[in-house]
Amino acid sequence: MKNFMYSAPMYFAVFLPTVILLYQICPQKFRKFLLILANYAFFFIWSKFFLIYQVITMFITYLSAKIIDRTTNKKIKKISLIIAILINLGVLVVLKYTNFFGENIFAIFHQPFTPVRLIAPIGISYYTLQMISYLMDTSSGKIHTNHSIVDFAVYASFFPTLIQGPITRFSEVKDSIHACNPITYQNLKFGSQRILFGLMKKIIIADRLDPAVSKIFTSYTQDGLFSLIGAVLCTIQLYMDFSGIVDICLGSAEIFGIKLPENFRQPFFAENASDFWRRWHITLGTFLRDYIFYPISLAKPIHRLSKFFTKHFGKGAGKFIGPFIALFAVWFLNGLWHGPYWSYIFYGLYYFCFMILEILLKKPVDTFFKKHQIDGKRIGLRLFRFIKLFIIVIIGELFFRAQTLAVGWMMFSSIFTNFNLSTFAETLPFLRLDTIDWIIVIIGTIITFLVDIYKEFHGSIRSAIAQKPIWLRWSIIYTCIFTLILFGAYGPGYDIVAMIYAEF
Q1: Cis before 295 (ω within 30)
Q2: What is the pLDDT of residue 183?
Q3: pLDDT per residue over 11-41, tens digit each?
Q4: CA angle, corner 278, sides to 347 and 151, nearest 5?
Q5: Contact call for residues 212 and 432 (beta carbons, < 8 A)
Q6: HEC string of 356-381?
C-alpha cells in the first residue's frame, strides 16, 4: 500500500483534494458522516482487517466509556475500564508480540519454537494508545461521554492520525470535530504549506538517503567509518521521514480546522537527553508520562518502598527509588512499543540510563556552575551540549536501526576498533548516491536546520511568511513547489519508500 501513503501522489494529489472538495460542498450536518466514510475508505485500502477491527473496538471502547462515566459504582467502573483496556491491548499484544514472547520463553527451556503467522494491521499501535487514553481520561473525569458516537467515530478513525500518529487525545479535538466548520482560506493555506514542507523533508531528503542507509545496515562490514556514516545518515533520515510525515498529517487535519498536537519541537536544540524526549515524538512521551510514569510513581506499593529505602538507606535513596522504577517501566515500554525486538528494548533502556545519570548529576553540576559563576547560556556550552546530544542520539539510532542487537553492538564497537579515514573515498561509491544526491541532501538538511533555528528562537515560520508582501510569499511557495518537483526522489530508479514509523 505504499502507493497510498501520506507522501505518495495518490494521497496528496487525489485522495485529499477529493475529500476537501466533498467536505466543503457537503451540508454541515452531514460533514461528520463524510469524514467517517473518507476514514473508512482510507483504511479499507490499507487493510480490510484493520477496518473491521477498528469498527468493533471503537464500539466496545465507546460503550465501555459510557459505563465508566455514568456509573457511580467504583467496582463496576474499575472492571469496565480493565476489560476495555485488555480488549484493546490484548489484540495488539497477540498480533505484534506473540512470536517475540514465544521465542524467548522457549529459548529459556532450550526448546524449538515455530513462529506463528500473524500480521498486525498497520497503525494498530497508535490506534490502541488513543483508545486507552480515551478510556483513562473518562475514568479520571477529564472527559465525559456527552458526545455522540459519530463524534467519537471521527476521532477514532481520523485518517491523518492512525497510520503514524500523532497520538491524539479526544479532549484535544472534540470541539473541532463536533463543529465541522467550513474550510477557511487561512486553514487551507497554512495546512497546504505544512504539507508542502513535510513532503520536501520526506521526498527530497529522507527518501534520497534510503538507498545509502539500507545498504549500510543490510551489507554490514566491520568498518568503523562505515558504521559512523550509517549512524549519522540514519539519524537524519529518521528525523526527516518521521517529522516530514507528521507535518503532512498535521497539515491535512489543519485544512479541516482540526488542530492535532505537535509531535516535534526542534529536538536537536535540546539541552540533554531528557529534554530531547520532551521534543521528539512528544505525544508518545506524554502518553507514557501520564498513563505509566505518574500512576506507577504514585502507587501505594511504590510509596511504601520509598519509605523503606528512606529508613534504611537515607532520604536520597527514598527520594529517587520511586521515580527510577517508574522511569524504568516507561523506557522499557517505550522500547517495546517500537517493536518485538531486543534492539528496540535496548534502545529504550539506553535512554533510561542517560535519564538516571542526568537526575543524579543535576545537583552537583548546578552547584559547580554556581560556585564558579558559569553562565549556562554561553555559546561554547550550548555548542558542547549540542555535540554531546548529537553523539548520544546517533549512537542510539545506530542500535535502533541495526537488524539485531548483536549487529548494532559490532557496528558500534567498530567505530573505536577499526576506524580508518582512508576508506572514505571507497565508502562513498558503495552507498549508491552520486555527487548531486549528496549536495541535495546536505543543502536540504542545512535549510531544515535553519528553519528549526528560526522556530526555536522566533516562533512560527508560517506566520512570519504570512506577514511578508504577497510577491515574496508566493515566490517562497513556488520555489518550494519547484524544488520538490526538481529534486524529489522519484521516477526511474526510485521506488516509493515506506514510512519508517508506520512499521511501529
Answers
A1: no
A2: 93
A3: 888 999 999 999 999 999 899 999 999 999 9
A4: 105
A5: yes
A6: HHHHHHHHHHHHHHHHCCCCCCCHHH
Among candidate residues 56, 241, 47, 263, the one with its CA nearest the CA of residue 159? 47
pLDDT at 320: 84
Q: Which amino acid is at 198?
A: G
| CA distances for 139 relative to 97, 112, 170, 174, 396, angstroms | 27, 43, 13, 17, 36
Q: Which amino acid is at 129?
A: L
400 pLDDT band, cuts 50/70/90, is: very high
State percent of the chain over pLDDT 70.
97
CA distance 394 to 78: 43
State the pLDDT confidence band at 1, using cuts at 50, 70 and 90. Answer: low
What average pLDDT does range 211-218 have in this prediction?
88
Find out whether 129 and 287 touch, Cβ atoms under 8 Å: yes
Q: Which residue in this structure is represented by grid cell 508520562?
A: 289
Residue 309, CA distances (Å) to 193, 313, 327, 356, 413 in order: 54, 5, 17, 17, 38
Cα 21 to Cα 43: distance, rounded to the nearest angstrom: 20
Name the pLDDT band for 107 (thresholds 50, 70, 90).
Answer: confident
Please give the backbone phi and psi of residue 280, each rounded to the nearest 5 degrees, phi first.
-110, 130
C-alpha distances out from residue 499 to 1, 68, 396, Å: 11, 37, 20
Mean pLDDT, the chain, whole residue set: 88
| Cell matching residue 294 | 505518574
Taking alpha carbons only, the member of 436, 440, 461 closest to residue 451 is: 461
Q: What share of the chain is helix, strand, coil (3-state, %, to 5)?
A: 80, 0, 20
Question: What's the start-to-end Cα distance of the chain, in Å?
Answer: 16
Q: Domain extents for the chain?
A: 2-180, 193-283+357-503
Q: What is the DSSP code string of 425-443?
A: HHHHHHTT--HHHHHHHHH
- For residues 324 and 344, give the distance between their C-alpha atoms in angstroms, rounded to a whole number: 20
Locate the DSSP E strands across 136-271. none
Tell me the three cell numbers of residue 18. Answer: 477529493
Cα dihedral: 192, 195, 196, 198 (round 10): 160
Residue 373 has pLDDT above 90, yes or no: no
Distance CA 133, CA 289 (A): 12
Determine the Cα–Cα distance for residues 433 and 428; give it in Å rounded to an integer.
7
For 429-441, write each residue's pLDDT tens digit. 777 788 888 999 9
What's 302-338 look like in SS3?
HHHHHHHHHHHHCHHHHHHHHHHHHHHHHHHHHHHHH
| Residue whose C-alpha cell is 531544515 | 448
* Residue 374 and residue 435 in contact, taking contact as beta carbons nearer than 8 Å: no
Average pLDDT over residues 353-367: 87
